[in-house]
Amino acid sequence: MIQRHRKAAHLHAAVQHQGVLYISGHAAHDIDQDIKGQTQEICDKLDRLLADCGTDKTQLLQARIYLTDMSQKAAMNEVWLAWLDGADLPARATIGVADLGDPRRLIEIASIAALPERG
């Protein structure tokens, strides 16, 4: 069975199927923040979404991080690594992109997480 979470106009925030949670790209609402602030806001959003779906960040399997300025990768990594336990890092790609819809939007994160088995 497919379950969809948090419907928006053009997507769901996450789609669940066969024990896997596919999480849409998430960006910060406050795009006047720097890369660290935007990254932290996204991590906080992911914490809430994962919890609402019955899982958490230790169950992240993969992340795709889109940055409009790859020179900001080290600053983004500071927040990312502070958010995650070093033992539970997901497979990850960081991809430089030209545009995320607004020149102030610096980062978007899409991910996949495992859902706990129910006994």
User: How much of the residues is beta strand, in percent?
Assistant: 25-35%
Oligomer: single chain
How many helices? The count is 2
What helical percentage do the residues reach? 10-25%
Biggest sheet strand order reads 1-2-3-6-4-5
CATH C-level of the domain at 25-55 and 62-111: Alpha Beta
Total beta strands? 6
Ends: how far apart? 17 Å
What is the radius of gyration computed over CA atoms, rounded to a whole number of angstroms? 14 Å
What's the CATH topology name of the domain at 25-55 and 62-111?
60s Ribosomal Protein L30, Chain: A
The arrangement of helices and strands along the chain is: EEEHEHEE
**Poorly predicted residue ranges:** none
CATH superfamily of the domain at 25-55 and 62-111: RutC-like
- Main sheet properties: 6 strands, mixed
The average pLDDT score comes to: 96
Class derived from helix and strand content: alpha+beta
Overall form: globular
Q: Which architecture of the domain at 25-55 and 62-111 would the CATH scheme give at its second level?
A: 2-Layer Sandwich
Summarize the structure.
This protein has 119 residues and is an alpha+beta fold. It has 2 helices and 6 strands; from the N terminus they run βββαβαββ.
How would you describe this structure in keywords?
119 residues; six-stranded mixed beta sheet; alpha+beta; 60s Ribosomal Protein L30, Chain: A; 2 helices
